[in-house]
Predict the 3D structure of the following.
Amino acid sequence: MAQPAAGELSVSIWRGGAEGGFEAYRVPARASQTVLDVVTHVQRHIDPSLSYRFACRVGMCGSCAMTVNGRPRWTCRTHVSKVAEGGRLEIAPLANMPVIKDLAADMRPFFEKWQAAGGAFEPTLTRADPVEPVRPSEPARKVADAGIECINCGVCYAGCDTVRWNDDYLGPAALNRAWTLMNDRRDGAQGPRLAAVAAGGGCHACHSHQSCQEFCPQSLDPTGSIASLKRLATRAYLRGEIKA
């Protein structure tokens, strides 16, 4: 595509499924414009068949995550002025997931691995029992708090090299969630969960490249959570509590 004119952006957007390709669009450049604004302009004013996801538009839900100039990002929080190179943008669906259509990725593998890592809280009490207080000052609660703000947007999964190489790898979001639950004394599934994340494709498959930490829009540290799981799993193995 030729150099964009003044007041314009040159935008390449992925169209179709896995065997699709990039199509070029001219979009007006505006002040304080986000990448999501650009995608919305294309859908509303140029090609209404463009498929993509968004919901809150204010950085709360994470559903607008896409690959922008090769990097996974929340498009609602990504200003064009900070990422456009020479007035150009390339926008694609999140990597490491099947493509449904255009910019919409199929997140089923992501959530299936989240479940495989024991990502669901398993209560030890019933509705009839008194609520068990958990003090914010408790050391385990502080550890859980450090990773609990994950909203499952999939950015870390899309940016993870190990996920790209290893189809069995559970991924940083699932392992981060497992680590928060391993520090929740109200949870009753810590044994099976630790066995799950210590198995093949679990925490020991992480190569500690820290891409997840670099890309996380919430500034979380999944790499640190995974390293803690590795230590916990190793101690459990040495005590004979889990098998190799």
